[in-house]
Design a protein that fits this description.
homodimer, alpha/beta, Conserved hypothetical protein from pyrococcus furiosus pfu- 392566-001, ParB domain, Arc Repressor Mutant, subunit A, 3 domains, five-stranded mixed beta sheet, three-stranded antiparallel beta sheet, 49% helix, DNA-binding
DNA sequence: TGGGATTGTTGTCAGCTGACAACAATCGAA
DNA sequence: TTCGATTGTTGTCAGCTGACAACAATCCCA
């Protein structure tokens, strides 16, 4: 079970539930006290005892309420770049219009405005309901600022299949809202190394560039870090700003927009990428002995199956001599 | 937007919704006719027209019904190895007991048994509701056999975060239930190459071994294929059956159980794995020139930054001579 | 019967992310 | 002021899966 799944279950499980392992415990949320583990049998019989009384409560339908969407404000931490009215939002509205709202949203009472609510997650459904003139089905829970952000992250990140850059912006927004780095880690189910990398990218790439590129679902940490590093060069930054302002930029899909931006950021390279990446290595006799890839400083050899397997070891042992020969040729 | 997300939205959107691109269309499900695309404006105004009449229907709460769980049978295609009563199922029951059922299940009328239902997804919640003596909240849709299986796959695979082997068994079960290979592809949002690999593994590894190992969340295609290949050897198969029957096997976590099974399948290797994977390469002068990894037939060199970058090219060019030297030493 | 199209199988690779290690920076207590 | 603990940063790697190519097998039609 992944960390994310553990913490989602923990968030929704009652305090009497079987606790997760200690390193999965989510701080600040209702949970069994640290280190104390109740036996499965005990909690099972607890459940049996509570069943009868809860049946009546459920018969009263107490869990889900209907709320006027005009009373609901979004989470104080945004987890999308901007509110988009796009095809998927229109589809959501139509689905709700035809089928009703099948999944309730999570709300808390607004901390400052009496009689109003804030949403932890599901705010697109809130907006859709408001535009359709419908009440929204909601679960209302007492949540602290941290609990709200963690719930938002735990629910939205898997459901929305957030990309690297969306998670990065969300992480930065959580920190800019005043939360500790550990809240970022909990909300996104990540370790401190990954939190550091996400926030660094979000801070290094200007938000107008991020917004213009968009979700970029297939672009991961490495390539965003490369783009972020390039932002330190003012010439590169200028070229990217020009590229995103060019006509036609917005018409490409998001991954392609990233590639355009990245390409604009890098100076044209003399290196030919049409050169075959994997080349055969042939002996003087014409026998194929290996396949080789040479990229920057990395040389990778795959010795042919017909060749004695310790040829690789042999090459390895010969490297010092080869290096001396190489150096002597350099000196000539 | 991933294929999976597109097809989930398509499944739930009304036929009037904005259609997905043609290559995302899900066969056999309600959808806009092939190739005909309605303008966004047209469908938007259609929605406005329907809003008033739908408001009243929603006020009557028509979308979600409550059903006696005793009337509901599981999907004809199983997507879990076995019905497990484990900690997570107890947590689910407690969550429903305390909070109510927040996400409805999807049902169809049973094709053969009048007055009864089959579940496309959510059957764990059905079982939990039955054990708690509660009715279950459900959406009831007319679904063909294929539509049911596709809906089940599209909903359960992301929600349950199914591992490679769980997806493999589900794929095999779909095919064994008589469905075409393309239904497998649609249900799991995969291409025919991946479908072939999943089903091959599920057929090659005996189901008792798969069941004993379990979900194995971190074990992917490559390692399952390696284990599957080993199952052709009757000695290996026997050792694995012994390993899974041994005391203590069931107490490890699922990934560890896989490793034990895989280890039992392979003959003990003289190769030492404690040998450092990455070794420095040092010149006769003592200068560090590269880092090297030698695994089976693959040799990878990372030339040190202080060394002239074309040393890699130099080594590449010297390989034919090295091979001749190597062969001449073999002959002595 | 032959050939083209379709489907199934196998191999390979790129880029992804989880995970961890090592080092740097910061903080707080003694 | 120093030192240990904690937190942040950076690098690296293993194994994953999506994607595609190439070839094999099957099917169907002329």
């Amino acid at each position: 079970m992944s960390k994310r799944t553990d913490t989602i279950k923990s968030l929704f499980a009652s305090p009497q539930s079987v606790p997760l392992s200690a390193d999965n415990a989510v701080r600040g949320l209702p949970r069994v006290s640290s280190g104390s583990v109740r036996s499965l049998r005990d909690s099972f019989s607890d459940v049996e005892k509570e069943n009868e009384e809860l049946k009546e409560r459920l018969a009263a339908g107490a869990a889900i309420v209907e709320v006027d969407p005009a009373l609901i404000e979004p989470s104080p931490v945004s987890d999308r770049f901007r509110d988009e009215v796009d095809g998927s939002f229109e589809q959501l509205k139509q689905s709700i219009a035809h089928r009703g709202q099948e999944v309730p949203v999570l709300l808390r009472m607004h901390p400052d405005a009496s009689g109003r609510y804030q949403s932890a997650y599901g705010h697109r459904r809130v907006r859709a309901a408001r535009e359709l003139g419908l009440k929204v089905k909601a679960i209302v829970r007492p949540l602290s600022d941290e609990e709200l952000v963690v719930a938002q992250g735990l629910e939205n990140a898997p459901r929305e299949d957030l990309s690297f850059i969306e998670r990065a912006v969300f992480a930065m927004n959580i920190e800019d809202a005043g939360h500790a780095r550990t809240v970022v880690q909990d909300a996104l189910s990540i370790d401190r190394a990954e939190a550091s990398k996400l926030i660094a990218v979000a801070r290094a790439v200007p938000s107008d560039i991020v917004g213009a590129i968009g979700k970029a679902a297939k672009i991961g940490r490495g390539r965003w870090q490369a783009l972020a590093d390039l932002m330190a060069d003012s010439g590169a930054l200028k070229r990217v700003e020009e590229a995103i302002a060019a006509p036609g930029f917005g018409e490409r899909d998001s991954d392609a927009r990233f590639l355009v931006a990245h390409s604009a950021a890098t100076k044209p390279s003399v290196k030919s990428t049409s050169e075959p990446r994997v080349k055969p290595v042939v002996a003087a006799s014409g026998e194929k002995i290996a396949r080789a890839q040479l990229v920057d400083r990395d040389l990778k050899l795959t010795i042919d199956k017909k060749v004695a397997p310790d040829f690789g070891q042999f090459v390895l042992e010969k490297l010092p001599e080869l290096y001396d020969l190489f150096r002597s040729k350099e000196r000539q």
